[in-house]
TrEMBL record:
Membrane topology: Multi-pass membrane protein
Boundaries of every G-protein coupled receptors family 3 profile domain copy: 346-610
Species annotation: Perca fluviatilis
Protein name: G-protein coupled receptors family 3 profile domain-containing protein
PROSITE patterns, A to Z: G_PROTEIN_RECEP_F3_4 (PS50259)
UniProt key word Repeat: no
Compartment list: Cell membrane
Transmembrane segments: 346-368, 384-404, 416-440, 460-479, 504-528, 540-560, 572-595
Entry GO CC: plasma membrane
Amino acid sequence: MSLPVLEKKGDIILGGLFSLHDMVVEPSLSFTSTPPPAQCTRFNFRTFRWMQTMIFAIEEINRNGKLLPNITLGYKIYDSCSTPHQALKAVMELVGSEKGSGVEETQSKDTCPGSVPAVIGDGGSTQSLVVARFLGAFHLPQVDALVQLVKHFGWTWVGVIAGDDAYGRGGANIFADEVRKLGTCVAFQEVIPRNRAQTTLSSIVSKIRSSGARVILVFAVEQDAAALEGLTEIQWLASEAWSTAAILSTPKRHHQILQGSMGFAIRRAHIPGLKDFLLRLHPSSPNALADPFLIPFWEEVFQCSLCVQAEDAIECVHCLPEFWSNAERTACIPKQVEFLSFSDTMGITLMAISLIGSFCTCVVALIFSCHRITPIVRANNSELSFLLLFSLTLCFLCSLTFIGRPSEWSCMLRHTAFGITFVLCISCILGKTMVVLMAFKATLPGSNVMKWFGPAQQKAIITFCTLVQVIICTVWLVVAPPTPRQLMPRESVLVILLCDEGSAIAFALVLGYIGLLAGLCLLLAFLARKLPDNFNEARLITFSMLIFCAVWIAFVPAYISSPGKYSTVTEVFAILASSYGLLGCIFAPKCYIILLRPEKNTWKHIMSKAATDKF
């Protein structure tokens, strides 16, 4: 699992390791599942200030175009939690991009993309030693200033005293190894015990006096260094942990311990602008969300938890479901309402497609009206054709009821209008198919089947089929009518308005009845496939029904899986696609013949073609 990281992109990335927490609570191990990550506790305010100082320095450098022209510094900062293993995990993630970037080892590190040329931290010795050993393999510099000091003065006989911890032992061992490489002899190397037992301290003092060494390095913390008071005539080399320690700088001890000592200390200076930078840190600042350490710091300082989203920032109370907290978490503001509106790009597009379809249907009706006495119009049952065009116009227009803010009336209108208009449309196609099929049967000798499928019977079939859908929709509106509903996901800033079907069974019956009529129509058209091509519309009706069925079969899973307003978009798209399929397959070929191939619009041509064409 990746560690929390505070990062900023740049041409050169500087690493940062800081002990922002002083303790790690290790999880209990069950050995049956993946162990959870360790929890860091006890926030360290001083280290947090160091981290922010690094960020401030980098931002100041980037703002000054004269320091690094055309180069932007970035950073990656991790929390080592004052533990070696956490520091090691952090440094492995820090340099992971360098090792895993796929760059050959022969390539220069300066040109390696994603490489980290410098690492700042860690402040703790134990973590620093682990990091130092790891980073040494990547050739990052580690400067031992104390060794350079010995070399500068030409000392050849030195003693080494270390504290009994990773800081003291590690530093003393490295120092001893490095000065030996310079030809300097180490007279002795002793360790001050943690309990600072008097017998051990006396033994160390005896070795110091008997060795004759007058230059002694004390690599320890201030409490260990204080145990050596009373020794004089010695040139002490102080590590930075105690060189400026307050308890060793009093007048009483100054002459006993620090007189003539040399060491290194972290430079103290006033950094202009740093204080204002630190005071501007706030959870509501623009970069707060990208900083995983700012909110824990803020909660630790004020001993309270920040309000989560959807809560008021002062009283920490939940906003109402239709409200959301503002950026400052100080007030509840209304959530943005989302629905398929006439001002949306999607709504405008669907509305335009719907109006174009209605216009095309009216144009087809006008063409048929102007050529109503021509053979191709009369041969295809002009009365049913005009009724079909009227129902198709209603199908196109009913899609407009799905656009706009849902209300009680619009929700009831959109579903009932959709169901009834489509049944009327399919009933007309079913009537045309039955008439064509029966008309061919009537040409057989002795057949009187057409008396059962005259104009009155055709109207009765269409009326009956449509009346069934009207009854279904009426029962639906009475028992469980569609109503507007608000979807308010807890973690969303949107209130989604849509129409709830009220009764899923009724909605399924409406769609199922339309599907039943479409399937029956497709079956009859398939049975009429062997009839003469110019005497019936079986082929065109079959194509139109195949498109219609394919659209609505695909609609069901798409509608169920579409979130929010996109379920409405899916339904409108299905209505328009199936309407265009019916209009194009049934009427486009006839308009083509009427307008562009008038020589085929004659009784002679219709009756002359052989009846051998099959679907």
